[in-house]
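My main concern about presentation is that the manuscript never shows what a single data entry looks like. An entry of this sort, consisting of the sequence and the corresponding backbone structure tokens, reads as follows:
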Amino acid sequence: MDEDKSEDEIFTKEPYITRENETEKIKSPKKVITIVSISLAIIFVALAIILYFVFITHKSNFNYIKVIYSKQKLGSHHVIFNESYIKYIEKIIIEGKEINKVNNNISFDKNSDVEIEIHFNKNMEKLDYLFYQNKILEEVDFTYLIGDELISTSNMFNGCTKLNKVLFKNFRPINVINISNMFSNCFRLKDVDTDIFKYDKLKDISGLFKNCIRFEKYNFGELNTKNVVNMSKLFSGCISLNQVSLNNAKNLMNNNLLDISYMFHNCKKLGNLNLKNFKTSKVIFMNNMFESCQNLKYLEIRSFNTKNVENMNSMFKGCSNLTTLNISNFETNKLKFAELFLADCKNLTKIDLRKFNSKKILNTKDFFRNQLKNGTLIYNPKIFNISFPKNWIGQKINKTL
């Protein structure tokens, strides 16, 4: 019977031979591609959603600070953080056990160091005064706090006289602006890894290490000061500080600084200081900057731009080991206050003030007080009219070089 079928009938029964089937055969690869594309898109969206929730969960797990308090008498009560933060605390865990009610006054039931976790219920923007004047705080661990929404940690540990260790493993305060007095009066603190403050939004670092009496050295390369406005009292009272390194401190070339007063005040062991990278074109306050740096023998500040400075009171007062001081670059047309400028610099034998203009200064009382050795003063009599010690020789320069 097959022999009786026409040739056309045979061919029409073969698969994919008709025009319709030919079209389907051509279209099918496009359909496959479309289906694959849609599938991939769905997978990518699902992954994005999963990653988002992982990130949120991960971030929520990094929202607490771990602290260690020194051992106290059994049953004694102590304030462990500033009361104003209670409303931001989700829970407090002491030695692995969550306490029933969030409270900043904790009873110590063991005669040993106590580890406490302070969990926040939101991403904090400010932690100012969080542990202010806490006398039993010994260690702080920021490993579990990201801190990317923080803008201020001012006075956070000010007065924590037993604090001796701070860890910043995952802490990245990329938006922080104000860290003034953060470690002020931390008498036992010897070192802080300020590499975490490498972000360029910082504006106020005043008093950051004030009265950290065990600080011995500091590397400015760790701190981003590109946009800093206030550095006053940065190391004031660091009586053990003997080395300040400005290696790789390119960010100190900053044209935003306004206040560097008291910056190295009472740094009694500091022997050499090279501040050639400092840009001071906008600085207004330089008063007491090096006051009582009694061991200072070498000071490089010839790059200082003083055209806008108004206050230099006691700038070098008590620098009793300085023998020469080259501040030939000091232009002081806006200077108003220079009381005790060089007072008690007992070993000073030469100073160059050739550009120093004293005619507009309101107060120059005791400018040269207690100069014991014979010395030479280089000055321009047309602009400098302050009486200098009788045992000094005046070397007049009638033009500024």
